[in-house]
Amino acid sequence: MVAWDAPGYGDAPDPERADIGWYAEQAARIFDEPAHVVGVSWGGVIATRLALEHPVLSLTLADSTRGSGTSAEAAARMRARVDELAEVGAAEFARRRAPRLCSDPSTRAKVEATMARVRLAGYRAAAESMATTDHGPVLGRISVPTLVVVGADDQVTGVEESRLLAREIPGARLRVIGGGHAANQECPDEFNEVLLEFLSEVEAARCA
């Protein structure tokens, strides 16, 4: 398993561009051969483009979305987050957003600590890539086994957005689990069970 630091996050250098296609190209470079791809939130939007433009074995979208370019209002809300981060700083930005990501206090503290490391350059590029992306019209082109997972209490992307993804991606299955937007962290056992069940089925079908 490989956990990828997208450009501008973790230990990765700041991004050179701010579009989803470029991020997908960077992600594709870590694979020597097709792999099972799991993307959470913005990572799911990158993973969607990866599955559209590069060979993958399967796609899992967790608490994800088509992108924020679905309307001018959604794009403006996404770009406004950058202004807030620049104004209040990473620590305060994380403190304000963490309660929307999960309800469990212990998980919230971990999410807040991680988010407090966000860098303005990385977040600005990520937000712009979201604001200029709407995968809605091309979801029907995804041809690999796809799992859509969402926390029942997701206040950020929401269950209905995940339902739309599962409906528009051919053959996709939807699983609603516990937790909020950070469901994979808030309910890791349930998330892992659902994911491993899906991956096992995909691998069994490949070997049949």
UniProtKB/TrEMBL annotation:
InterPro entries from the UniProt entry: AB_hydrolase_1 (IPR000073), AB_hydrolase_fold (IPR029058)
Superkingdom: Bacteria
UniProt xrefs under Pfam families: Abhydrolase_6
Membrane-spanning residues: none
AB hydrolase-1 domain: residues covered: 2-193
Coiled coil: none
Protein known as: 3-oxoadipate enol-lactonase
